[in-house]
Amino acid sequence: MTALLLNGKELAAKKREQLKKDVDQLTTENVIPGLAVILVGEDPASQSYVKAKQKACEQAGIHSVLIKKPDTITEEELLSDIERLNEDNSIDGILVQLPIPKHISEQAVIEKIAPEKDVDGFHPINIGKMMVGEETFLPCTPYGVVEMLKEAKIDLVGKHVVVVGRSNIVGKPVGQLLLNEHATVTYCHSRTKNLREMTNLADILIVAIGRANFINADDVKPGAVVVDVGINRVDGKLCGDVDFDSVKEKASYLTPVPGGVGPMTITMLLENTVQSARKRL
């Protein structure tokens, strides 16, 4: 058995075509979706991510504003910049590219963004709504993972999902979203005892632990669906948290890295921004 690929790149392209049509329709009603991105410092990875987001916005017809700030900016100054964007009616979505300098509270920044413009889906109010199944902005990467599984028509109801990783950005919310889809969810992490025993119970294995090739074929139940959220660089090449070559011979479905979950993250950011613009209309 060789796993079928869950191709996030193809699905992202399909969704962006529809988003372009949605933006064109909004534009005819004098609403141009606007996304503001604040980039603090000169981190190369952050700069690359921001550039990709800007390009995606341009292709979709979304108005994009990039605000660059030095890493010497104070927390008070950054919060003041966010407040101005909160009050700007031409901006539907605000995100601050993480990570930010250690002298600034990440939580203070997240909570300063108005919930109705929190297109990253990180504000506690939006996280709370997600927990109880209310309509809200969903965190982009977990949102993308669920969309990929649905596109492949993978049945989620009653399936045992094992999530390896417990970050606030991916691990915790992806488990909650799948629980909302009636899956049974187990969370594992770096301190889980007998981790291999747990992962071998998974019908659907979501890996977001941030360690290159951490999961191999011995960790996977035959026929399992494996979603690799990791992005690591080894010897100058990108790889995930899953050893692709070994796991592809055992899984039924598998996401590649790159080209799997990554393209979906930016796509769902655009989706959230357009959703916010619809509410403005």
What is the C-alpha radius of gyration, as a whole number of Å?
A: 19 Å
Terminal residue distance:
50 Å
Structural class: alpha/beta
CATH fold-level topology of the largest domain: Rossmann fold
Structure description:
With 281 residues, the chain is α/β, with parallel strands linked by helices. The chain has two domains: 85 residues, Rossmann fold, CATH 3.40.50.10860; 124 residues, NAD(P)-binding Rossmann-like Domain (Rossmann fold), CATH 3.40.50. It contains ten helices and eleven strands. It has a six-stranded parallel β-sheet. A three-stranded parallel β-sheet has the order 3-2-4, sandwiched between helices. The protein has a two-stranded antiparallel sheet with strand order 9-10. It is globular, with a radius of gyration of 19 Å. The mean pLDDT is 96.
Offer a few descriptive terms:
2 domains, alpha/beta, 281 residues, Rossmann fold, globular, 6-stranded parallel β-sheet
Summary, kept brief:
The protein is α/β, with parallel strands linked by helices and 281 residues long. The protein has helices spanning 8-28, 44-60, 75-86, 106-112, 124-131, 140-151, 171-180, 195-199, 244-247, 261-280, and strands at residues 4-5, 34-40, 63-69, 93-96, 160-164, 184-188, 204-207, 225-228, 232-234, 237-239, 253-254.
